[in-house]
Design a protein that fits this description.
Layout lengths: L1 E5 L8 E5 L9 E11 L1 H8 L10 E2 L4 E8 L11 E4 L2 E2 L5 H4 L10 E2 L11 E5 L3 E3 L3 H24 L7 E4 L5 H12 L3 E6 L5 H5 L5 E4 L5 H9 L4 E6 L6 H6 L1 E9 L12 H6 L3 E4 L5 H12 L7 E6 L3 H9 L6 E5 L2
Parallel strand pairs: 11-12, 11-14, 12-13, 14-15, 15-16, 17-18
Antiparallel strand pairs: 1-2, 1-4, 3-5, 3-9, 3-18, 5-6, 6-10, 7-8
Helix pairs in contact: 3-4, 3-9
C-alpha cells in the first residue's frame, strides 16, 4: 500500500508518499480503506523527534481516522465489508487486570494509533474490531477525523481534570487551535465564562464564534493585565493550556488563589520557568493531561455528531500531501482542524 511515512526524524519533507508493507490482518481485526485522517500537533512532534517516543522506521502516523471496511478477520462478528467506521484513537486489551478493574486507560497493552502502531496516514489501516465505531455516512468520517482527538482531550481536561463548574471563569490560551477551540466549547457546556487569547487579531471573530465570551490578542498587551480587566482583578478559576513555552508563567499568573492549571501540550516550548514560591503561596494546582478514557472518547464523538461541539475544518489535503499539511500547521495560521482525505 501507499502511505505518508517517515524513515528518519526531520522537517515536514521527511514525510514521503511511498510503498510500505500492507497491514497484516488478525482474526479479530478489520481492514479499513482510509477516507479521512486528522492531523494533530502531536504528529508534528513525532515526525520531528521532539515527542520522545521511540519509533521503528518506517513509521506511519495518524491517530484519528475512518473509512470503509474492506476485509474482516475470521473471528469478527457484527461488522462486514462495506460498513463505514471510525477507529477509536486508542484501545485497551480488555483482559488484563487494569481492564477488568474498569481502568482500561491503565491497560498494560494500551495502544494509541500512530504512536504504538501504524495509523491513518495511509491507504489502508488495521483496526481491532473492538476499537471500531459504526458511522452513518462518509461525511461523518471527516467529522470524526477532525474532532475525536481534540474534543476528547478538551472534554477530559475541562470536565474530568479541572472539574469546571457553572459560574467559574476559564482562560483558554491560543484558542484557534484544535484542542483549545474544543476546550472553549466544552467549558461553555460546563457553564463557565470563557476568556480566550489569540496570536493575531484576524482570528478574534472566528474564536468568538466558538462561544468565547471575550477574545483578545496576547501580542497587544500583557496577558495578566487584560485578564485583570476582564475579571475585576480576581483572576480566573482555571487555565486550559495547550501550548506551554515562554508564556506559561504569564498564563499561570492569571489564576486566582487555589486555581487549577491543566496542560496537555508544549508546542511553543517543552521546558518552562516556574516560580515555586508563587505556586505554593497561591495554592495553584498544575495538572497534566495523560490520556482520555474510552468513555470520554465516546462522549466526545457523541457531542460532535449531535452538533453540540463544532470543530471547523481549516483545510483539507490529500493523504499524499501530508508533508504539505504539516508545513501548513507549522505556520500556525489555521483556525480549527487540518484533515487528510483520500484522493
Amino acid at each position: 500500500m501507499l502511505a505518508a511515512a517517515f524513515w528518519e526524524y526531520g522537517d515536514p519533507e521527511a514525510l514521503r508518499w511511498r510503498d510500505v508493507a500492507d497491514p497484516v490482518l488478525g482474526p479479530n481485526d478489520l481492514l479499513v480503506d482510509v477516507t479521512a485522517c486528522g492531523v494533530n500537533h502531536s504528529d508534528l512532534d513525532s515526525r520531528a523527534g521532539t515527542s520522545r517516543w521511540n519509533f521503528t522506521f518506517p513509521w506511519v502516523l495518524g491517530a484519528e481516522f475512518g473509512g470503509v471496511v474492506v476485509d474482516v478477520g475470521s473471528d469478527v462478528e457484527g461488522i462486514e465489508a462495506g460498513q463505514i467506521v471510525t477507529a477509536l484513537q486508542q484501545y485497551a486489551c480488555g483482559s488484563c487486570f487494569q481492564c477488568l478493574s474498569w481502568r482500561p486507560d491503565l491497560c498494560t497493552r494500551f495502544t494509541v494509533f500512530g504512536t504504538d502502531c501504524w495509523g491513518g496516514y495511509a491507504e489502508l489501516a488495521r483496526v481491532p474490531a473492538r476499537a471500531a465505531i459504526g458511522l452513518d455516512s462518509l461525511a461523518e468520517v471527516v467529522v470524526a477525523a477532525a474532532s475525536q482527538c481534540v474534543v476528547s482531550t478538551a472534554w477530559s481536561m475541562v470536565v474530568s481534570l479541572a472539574e469546571v463548574r457553572a459560574g467559574e471563569t476559564v482562560l483558554v490560551p491560543s484558542a484557534s487551535g484544535g484542542v483549545a477551540g474544543a476546550a472553549v466549547q466544552c467549558a461553555k457546556i460546563a457553564g463557565a465564562r470563557v476568556l480566550a487569547t489569540v496570536g493575531s487579531t484576524d482570528k478574534i471573530d472566528r474564536v468568538r464564534e466558538l462561544g468565547a465570551d471575550a477574545v483578545f490578542s496576547y501580542r497587544d498587551r500583557g496577558i495578566r493585565e487584560q485578564v485583570d480587566e476582564l475579571t475585576g482583578g480576581a483572576g480566573v478559576d482555571v487555565v486550559v493550556d495547550t501550548v506551554g513555552g515562554p508564556l506559561f508563567s504569564d498564563h499561570l499568573a492569571t489564576l486566582r488563589p487555589d486555581g487549577r492549571f491543566v496542560t496537555c501540550g508544549a508546542h511553543a516550548g517543552e521546558v518552562v520557568d516556574l516560580d515555586l514560591i508563587e505556586l505554593f503561596r497561591r495554592g495553584h494546582r498544575i495538572i497534566g493531561f495523560r490520556v482520555a478514557t474510552p468513555n470520554e472518547f465516546r462522549q466526545a464523538l457523541r457531542l460532535v455528531l449531535d452538533k453540540r461541539v463544532h470543530i471547523p475544518v481549516d483545510r483539507t489535503f490529500a493523504l499524499s500531501e501530508a508533508a504539505e499539511a504539516h508545513a501548513h500547521m507549522e505556520q500556525r495560521r489555521h483556525v480549527g482542524k487540518i484533515v487528510l482525505v483520500s484522493e
